[in-house]
Design a protein that fits this description.
The chain is of the alpha/beta class and 270 residues long. It has a single domain, classed as P-loop containing nucleotide triphosphate hydrolases (Rossmann fold), CATH 3.40.50.300. It has nine helices and 14 strands. Helix 5 packs parallel to helix 6. The longest helix has 15 residues. It is globular and about 60 Å long. The two termini are 33 Å apart.
Length: 270
Amino acid sequence: MKLEIKNLHASVEDTEILTGLNLELETGSIHAIMGPNGTGKSTLAAVIMGNPHYRVTEGEILLDGENVLAMSVDERSRKGIFLAMQYPNEISGITNADFIKSAMQARLQEGEHISLFKFVREIDRAVTDLKMNPDLPHRYVNEGFSGGEKKRNEILQMKMLQPHFAILDEIDSGLDVDALKIVGENVNSMRGKQFCALVITHYQRLLDYINVDHVHIMMNGKIVKSGTQDLIVKIDKEGYDWLKYELGIEEEVVEKHTIVLGTCAVKDRK
């Protein structure tokens, strides 16, 4: 399967954030997007998933030729697009097991049903893989969870839903060294012909545990350079100044724009 992003422009409150972004993702590969703060990385994730606070003004997103921008959020999910959020919300009164089971059921054809025995076995295995508390399936979604638990819970949902395209928006933020290794190894274990991950991160540390095929550097709302893992090492050692010089990008003051979405704040480039 292929997810194509072509000349994507997106704005929030009349401020353009994505400025002509091009990116092609295919199942069977893992991609990483890196870049300085405020370049629009989280905006890209939000736009792909259909966050209504962002307005696409130009360009297209195609999933095997189908217009993703014309799909509702739930349609995108049923088509196999998944977002692990940077700021996961708490949902009181709904257990993790019920939440995940409902999401899995929604992706089945009419008349199909999930085997309860198979579901329990799979969620218990996933909880064990992520080294989470065994009672997690019976706890309310993210309620009382630490930051690290919330991030691992996002990966739990991904493991259970088995999406074709998983967008991981700074899934490493708030994780200690041990949790970082667990999350990275679990993402890496999902590699396969029907799976693609787009890992959005600031740091090399998460990518030490994920075998990334393609690395993309994002600046000023677009992809400015792509390469292999060697690019990660160079960024880690030298930062982004060398790339700004190479591309002739002048230094600029980048302000922050904050949008309050329920209980989370999404910060991005103004």
